[in-house]
Amino acid sequence: MKLLKKILKFGGIMRALVGLAAGLFLAHTWYFKPVNINLFFGRTMVQLLLDSPEMLSSLHVLEPFGITGHNARLDDQSLAAGDAFFVKMKAAENVSQSYRNEDLSPRDLMSRQIADFLLGNLVAGERFRFHTFPLNQMSGIQSEFPSFMESDHQLDSVGDAEDYVSRLNAVGVQFDQVI
């Protein structure tokens, strides 16, 4: 009986230590420069996804796990959200460029070059942020919203219908943010 208690105690301590180590590793990956460039790519994508309920709905990555809260919200189209997006992209570009080429495999180097190209274009394009008309006869929130609701918002349950109505009720705020 004493041996069983010792084994269970040791197992519990080991699980706690492994959990603590995993938590510290995840926290480091989320808040600091990840130890691997692929973790950086994953972190950046997850951060972008978490800021965009509409993209989460379009990709349908959380629904198989029963996570549907994002389906009742729309993206923040405010100037502050746009400013925050460019701050994140500049930070991501800096982190991407902090990985040394000689430390990367040929595949990782190519991935980093592609990421640097995309991030560089986004960051450079910030100065042209207000050079287009957000609403015109060809595109804009007035045509994108109905298309999104028709093609990307799934209606498979009563909860999905309630989320649909929530998004319809929130569209006025999103239109005001764009205007």
Could you characterize what this model shows?
It is flat and about 75 Å long. The chain is mainly α. The protein folds into two domains: 1-32; 35-130 and 141-178, no CATH class. 68% of the residues lie in helices and 0% in strands. The mean pLDDT is 92. It contains seven helices and no strands.
What string gives the helices and strands in order? Answer: HHHHHHH
| Assembly category | single chain
Task: Tell me the β content.
Answer: under 5%
> Which structural class do the helices and strands define?
mainly alpha
Number of domains: 2
* Main sheet record: none
Helix tally equals: 7
Give the tags.
single chain; 179 residues; mainly alpha; 2 domains; 7 helices; 0% strand
Produce a short descriptive summary:
Helices cover 68% and strands 0% of the residues. The protein is built from seven helices and no strands. The protein has helices at 2-31, 37-50, 53-59, 79-97, 106-124, 141-151, 158-178.
